[in-house]
Write a structure and sequence with these properties.
Largest sheet: 4 strands, antiparallel
Shape: elongated
CATH class of the largest domain: Mainly Beta
Strand order of the largest sheet: 1-8-3-6
Number of strands: 12
Order of helices and strands: HEEEEEEEEHHHEEHHEE
Strand content: 25-35%
Helix content: 25-40%
Structural class: alpha+beta
Number of domains: 2
CATH architecture of the largest domain: Sandwich
């Protein structure tokens, strides 16, 4: 199966169109804890994660990081570079050894000239993605800290038997960076959820035992 066929922004493309795109891609490996792209760098490529995990983040003028997302196999980043000439809006760093399929803007534009349907499909899929991101931002903006913390937990959790398990090893600071709150506030919420037996800790992993309370 084509790696690109698993990428949502290319959903709806024909096998010939996917093959044309994939023929222009290169594969690169990066060690753990390597910056793949820097915020404000010139943007010229899309990255699809074949294996490994990365974090997407931005930094303030004091160097404090704000984690926007973590991504794994089948996810992608840098897609806007294919369509505009702006700079990177965030940085990306590997959390473990990772392999990427990389598509460069110049090759992509050359293929679009031969396959005009690719551009129409990509724009349609990106529009759907922007709408989804807008809903997520609105949801976070209207929630209190507790609501944002539980949303992060539920978003990252995967079913395992009759419980939910968060594979990603999250620190209290990781969660605080994602929800825009202090580590102390996050620690208090997690402690109270654990006391109520809504969650449990297995090393650095979090197990969700059932439905989380709707309010704190």
């Amino acid at each position: 199966m084509s790696m690109l066929s698993q990428v949502e922004i290319f959903a709806g493309l024909s096998e010939d169109e996917l093959a044309a795109l994939e023929s222009s891609c290169v594969t690169r490996n990066y060690p753990r804890n390597t910056v793949v792209i820097n915020e404000n760098d010139f943007a010229d490529s899309l990255y699809v994660i074949e294996s490994g995990r990365v974090k997407v983040y931005c930094s303030d003028k004091n160097g404090k990081e704000y984690i926007m997302n973590t991504l794994g196999p089948g996810d992608y980043f840098g897609e806007l570079a294919l369509l505009d000439d702006d700079r990177r809006s965030a940085s990306v760093r590997t959390l473990e050894k990772s392999t990427f399929t990389i598509m460069f803007k110049d090759e992509f534009h050359a293929i679009m000239d031969r396959h005009p349907n690719i551009a129409q499909t990509l724009i349609r899929n990106l529009t759907r993605r922007v709408r989804k991101l807008t809903e997520n931002v609105k949801s976070l903006a209207l929630q209190d800290v507790y609501g944002r913390v539980t949303k992060v937990l539920m978003t990252l959790a995967e079913p395992r038997g009759d419980k939910l398990y968060i594979e990603e090893r999250l620190t209290q600071q990781d969660i605080a960076d994602r929800v825009g709150a202090s580590r102390e506030m996050v620690a208090r919420i997690l402690k109270d959820l654990a006391i109520g037996e809504y969650i449990a800790f297995e090393g650095k992993n979090i197990i969700i035992n059932g439905k989380l309370p709707t309010s704190y």
